[in-house]
Each structure stands twice: as structure tokens, then as C-alpha cells.
Amino acid sequence: MKKLFLFMLAMGWLAGFGQEERKLWLGYLDKVARPVMSALAEDRLKELMPVVLSRRIDNAESRSKVTYLEAWGRLLSGIGPWLNGEGGTKEEVALREQYRQWAVKAVKNSVDPAAKDYMVWSGGQPLVDASFFALGLVRCPWLWEHLDAKVRGQVVDALKVTRGTVPVYSNWILFSAMVETFFCKYGMEYDAVRVEYAMREFFEHWYLGDGTFSDGMAYHDDYYNSYVIQPYLMEILRVMGMVRGGGVAGRYERYAERMERIARRYAEIQERAVNADGSFSVTGRSIAYRCGAFHQLAEASLMGQLPSAVSVGQVRGALAAVMQKTLGAAGTFTDKGWLAIGLYGHQENLADSYITGGSLYLCSEVFLPLGLGESDRFWSAPASPWTAVKVWGGMDSVRADHALDVVDVRPYRLVWADEFNKDGRPDSTNWRYEHGFVRNHEAQFYQQENAWVEGGRLIIEGRKDAKGYTSSSLLTKGLRSWKYGRFEMRAKIDVSSGIWPAFWTLGEKGEWPSNGEIDIMEYYRGMLLANIATGTDKRYKAFWFSKRFSVDSLGGGPGRGVDWAAQWHVWRMDWDEERIRLSVDDKVLQEVSMSELENRDGKGVNPFKQPHYIILNLALGGDNGGDLTKTVFPRRYEVDYVRVYQRE
Predict the structure, then answer these.
(1) 3-state secondary structure of 196
(2) How far is CA 310 from the centre of its chain?
(3) What separation in angstroms does the CA of 70 have from each of 34, 64, 113?
(4) DSSP E strand stretches across 80-121
(5) What is the distance between the alpha carbons of residues 571 and 633, in angstroms, rounded to a whole number?
(6) Contact 134, 230 (CB under 8 A)
(7) What is the pLDDT of residue 541?
(8) Could you count the other beta carbons within 10 Å of the beta carbon of residue 286?
(9) Beta bridge partners of 501
């Protein structure tokens, strides 16, 4: 009976989740953030926010001055992805708009020497919280883009002040690295040595194994892998991976691949650490950061790096349980809405010697998944009990836990490529052609004459002539196929009405869709798609994992989609035993665990555990392509290269 009660209690948490759960998360975000954001926007934070210090404070005078930057920087880093997002219910849109207005004013007041709320930016603790402020701006390009030129300059000046502080030889070296990462992200000169130093120390000297880093030379049994270390490493590597000039992206690629495996393992550890009631072990010196102890699990959710062993539904439930446990207890907030010291209510003895009222706002890191749109699988996936609920509820569905003994750092090597460097017909040892009218009631007749190599690129041309509409579709079927690896294409697509280019794969064995389809790049009707399809128990009916992104949302800007399409972009699939991830220009568009990709026909077949071949085609019109009547032909899909890498 007790087991049943525990299970029902947890499922009570889960029953209302989905859209209602997001509403609950937003309610807590608003409760935590409103006092700080509204006061700072009015230039009254120092007037209204009480100075609360640990009973064992090490330097009352200094800590009192920096508590405001602590609250502001940490809060911004947690809510930044949500501020950067779009959409939601009308209530969420209105709430985000209010916070955006406050955020713009808050940044101004925090960096303007003439403002009453001008922050202290020099010194030891300010380096820490300036880095959280920088992280918030890294996570929220919208905010940086909406600051006027004067304020941007003041932000840069404030962050440069932190360079005068030599960080402690611990996780603090990441604080200096994050400030430089901000400069790098927004195209400014940055000190690459500070970034390099942090990367080398953590990956070459401080990784202990089983998904865990030491904090400097010594291991501490606390939550700093989550508070700081792993989220910072993940964000820094993400930004550096986008820097193509000077070989920066390639320089850190081996660290990024290693970090992904480490992050997945540590996220698994974090999920297992959440007890059935949302509580967790009270260990470590910064436990007053409350649900900030699960910063890494929230970051892994935001970045799509959850392990295959746990579902997004159970992670969502676990984080919500922690949130309500640590923010919902009586005494957590003062009568004016400010956070009080404690973990479960007001517990002043839990504060170490450096804790102030501002320190507590690291708890806002739990809100990171709100940066994922409401249609993202994190929010739309079915609710599921997390590991502790399953085990202590008497369920027998949890497998034994296994350590990550060895991090796979085998580099990728190029196993096949077509660089399209020889003019004429595409290489016949790589490509075959589809012929005629093939699928989706498309308007074009496929023929090989519409594809050729010229000037170092493959050109697939859609035409309208005496034959009607014609185009070309190239495929490696029967010539080349691969199981797992990195598939990459650099191309320029046409976004005219009715144009439907694609870069995709199909499994060698089985009838569609039970052979598996992966749309690494697909475009039509103003939308870029990233799709994965499995079979169902009905012939020719697919089960889709589909993500759609307007071209404007990818950088074209309102009404400027053609500008984006006129540029070259790199589409990539990373496919291994654990997951399939699809991206463009290093922006992750879709990620699905291999554990979710069995055909829905009850036979237990996963069509993505077999070799797949590549297809490049330019479709016209048809079921999804759109109206062709106003499009002027010819139209071109141009490909610079297609490459396949596999691990050695």
C-alpha cells in the first residue's frame, strides 16, 4: 500500500504537467525574478533589496556591496534562454515582453556609472557574478541586440574591468573564460589564452572519470560540477564551436565531443539524485543555492544532451519536483518577495561564510528549459516518473547503473566525400539518379540532365520548359551507405515559392517508412525542417519526429529570408548508438534518442541500426512544396560538398 501511495503521490505531480506544468514553472520564475528585475529596471535595487549576510560572513563590508551583482548576474543567466525565446500562450508572451522591457533597463542601470544601481565590477566576487551576467547575455542574444550602442559600450567596459582579477586556481578559471567567451560570441577581440587555459586544465588535468571533474586539484563532494563547472564548459564549447575563423571550432572539437559524453553521464547521475519527493542530498558548502544544484541537468535539457537512459518526461518531472520542494516551502521568500537563506524554507545556519541574499539567485538556473518552446519534446513528451519514483514505488523498470569508465575520445575521420571539384556530370562511382515522377505528387520529372558540377559545386536545377517541370535527384543507393557517423553538407538553398530542396537518408533494408528516414535538411513554404521518421503498423504511414523553423528565426530577420538563403550554410547529422542529432551552422534543430526510434509496429526493429544511403534532390510543388505558378525558372540548389565521417 505504501508503494502505491508513493507512486500516486509522484504521479500527482505529473498528472497536470505539459502546458499546465509550464505555467507552474513560469509562476516560480516570476516569483523569483520579479523583485530583482522590477527594482533594477527602476534604478531602485540598492534601495529596495535588503542586505542579508551569512551569520559567519567573512567580510561584511565587501559582501554588502557585491550582493546586488550576485542577484542580477545569476538571475539573468537563468532566465536568459526564456527571454530569448518566442511564442507561448498570450499570458506567457505578455510576461516575457514585460521582462524584456525590464531587462533592457536593468542592464543599463547596472553598467551606467551615473545610475544609482551601478554595480561593483572590480574584485574577486565581482568576477564570479560578472561571468554569470556575461553568461546571461551569451544565452540571450535578443537582449544584447536590443541594447543601444552606448549601453553596449558600458557593458564591454564593465566586463573588461574583471580582467584585473586573477582567478583562484579552481572553477574560478571558468569565470574568466566565460567573460572572454562573451566577447568572442559578439565579434569582439577576446583573450583566447584565458579560454585555452580553462579548457586544458579541466580536460587534461581535472577530469576524474564517471562524468565528474575535480574542482581544481582536489575533489569536493558537492554540487559544483552542476553549479558551475559543466554548464560553463558546455556553453563555452558551444560558442567556440561556432567560430570558424582561425580554426577555433576544430581546435576544441575533441573537447566538445568528450564533454558531450561527460555531460550525458552527469545528467544521468543528477536525475538519479532526485528523491521521490523532490528532495536531494544536503552536501556541499553552497547548498543554499537551492534548486541551482541541478543547473547541469537543466542545461543538458536545454542543449539536448540528456542521456538515452532517461526520458525527457522524467527529467521534466524531477526538475519540477526539486523546484517545488526548494522554492515552495514556507519561509522561502520574505514578505516583500526576496529570497531567504535556506534550502527548505528559512534556514540561516546553512549559509557558508561567503553567502549573501544575492548569492541565492543561482536557483534561477533551474528555469533554463523554459528557453525551449512549448512544442519542444521537453514539454510535449508524456509525463513519466523519474528514477527514484520508479524504484521506491516498487516498479521493476530501472536497470542497474553503470559508470562511464572511459570517455570515448576517438576522433572522427573522413571516410567518404564528394567535393565536386571536377566539372561535368557528378561522379558515377558516388551517385545514381531517380527517374520520372517519384513521390508526394510532385510536379517535377526527375532526370539526370538537371544535375552537373561546375566551379567546385554541384548544381541541381529546377526548370520549366516544353517538358513541363524537371529537376534531379541524386542518391548513393547501391554505391555507398554508412551505419553511424557524422554526415555534413555545405549548401545554398533556394526559398522561392514551391521550391523543396532536401538532404536526407534512407535505410537500406525495409519498405518506407519502416526502413527509417532522416531529413538532415528539408525546406518548403518558408520553413526549414529537421525530421526523423519510423514505421507504424499501417503500411506507408510514418511516425514523425519533426521540428520546423522559420527562415527568419535562423537569422534572416523579418522579411529577409532570401538574404539568409543566399548564404552558404552547413547542415550536419551526428548519429551514433545513443542518438541522432540534426543541426545547421552548429545550431541544434532536432535530437532524438535511439531508444525512441523503434518502428511502432510491435516488432522491435530500429531502422536506424542499419546502414543508410544519402539522397540530394530538388523537388517542386507537390504535397508540401507549395505554389509554383508565380515562380520564375530556372531555380538552383547548390552544394559545395557532402562528407561522411566515422570514428576510428
Answers:
(1) helix
(2) 17
(3) 15, 10, 18
(4) none
(5) 25
(6) no
(7) 96
(8) 21
(9) 618
DSSP assignment letter at 276: T
CB 230, CB 305: distance < 8 Å: no
pLDDT at 246 over 90: no
| Residue of 280, 180, 270 lying closest to 225 (CA atoms) | 270
Name the 3-class secondary structure at 354. Answer: coil
501 Cβ contact partners less than 8 Å away, ≥ 6 residues apart: 460, 491, 493, 494, 521, 522, 523, 617, 618, 619, 637
Q: How far apart are CA 491 and CA 643, in angstroms?
A: 12
Q: What are the beta bridge partners of residue 533? A: 517, 544
For residue 485, CA distances in Å to 127, 143, 417 come to 40, 36, 13
Secondary structure of residue 470 in the 3-state scheme: strand
Look-up of cell digits 535588503: 50
Task: Return d(Cα 311, Cα 487) in angstroms, integer.
Answer: 26
Res 343 pLDDT > 50: yes
For cell 543555492, the residue is 289
How far is the C-alpha of 645 from the C-alpha of 640, rounded, in Å? 17
Compute the distance between CA of residue 587 and CA of residue 239 in angstroms, rounded to an integer: 10
What is the Cα–Cα distance from 142 to 178, expressed in whole angstroms? 18
Report angle CA 300, 260, 369 to the nearest 5 degrees: 10
Task: Show which residues are catalytic.
Answer: 517, 522
Whether residue 563 contacts residue 557, with contact meaning beta carbons closer than 8 Å, is answered with yes
Q: Of the candidates 56, 55, 49, which has an alpha carbon nearest to the alpha carbon of residue 71?
A: 49
Closest by CA to 132, choosing from 212, 207, 90, 72, is 72
Residue 8's pLDDT is 42
Contact 520, 572 (CB under 8 A): yes
In the structure, what pLDDT confidence band is assigned to residue 298 with cuts at 50, 70 and 90?
Answer: very high
* Distances 625 to 463, 465, 490, 566, 593 between C-alpha atoms, Å: 15, 19, 22, 19, 29
* Average per-residue pLDDT for the chain: 92
- Would you say how long the chain is, in residues? 648
Euclidean distance between CA atoms 561 and 505, whole angstroms:
26
Q: What is the DSSP string of 142-181?
A: HHHHTS-HHHHHHHHHHHHHGGGSPPPSSTHHHHHHHHHH
| Alpha carbon of residue 321 to chain centroid | 22
312-341: average pLDDT? 97
Residue 642, strand partner residues: 418, 489
